[in-house]
Amino acid sequence: MTAYTAVVTVRLKTGVLDPEAETTQRALERLDFAVEDLRRADRFELDLDAESADAAAERADEMAERLLANPTIHDYEVEVRER
């Protein structure tokens, strides 16, 4: 077994309202930062042991599908690196 860190980034799908991001974008614009669009994301870092990077990615993907993201309203991506 090898030690991996899987990073799961979860965002709302395009078209799903994100009031927190909208508020933050307006605040940045009031501070004179030009922002075309802003999206909020949650990032989960999972340390796990697996036979391969692909196996670690599969486990992280299953965790995202079952708990970390709601596939109805979220998109997510998984990145895996060896620790």
Give the topology, please:
Blueprint (H helix, E strand, L loop, with lengths): L1 E11 L6 H12 L10 E10 L2 H16 L5 E9 L1
Helix content: 25-40%
Q: How large is the radius of gyration?
A: 16 Å
Q: How widely separated are the two ends?
A: 12 Å
Main beta sheet, described?
3 strands, antiparallel
Number of strands: 3
Q: What percent strand?
A: 35-45%
Give the helix tally. 2
Q: Care to describe what's here?
A:
With 83 residues, the protein is α+β, with helices and mostly antiparallel strands. The protein is built from two helices and three strands; from the N terminus they run βαβαβ. The N and C termini lie close together (12 Å). The relative contact order is 0.35.
Compact overview of the structure:
With 83 residues, the chain is of the alpha+beta class. The protein has helices at 19-30, 53-68; strands spanning 2-12, 41-50, 74-82.
Q: What are its keywords?
A:
83 residues; 3 strands; alpha+beta; single chain; 36% strand
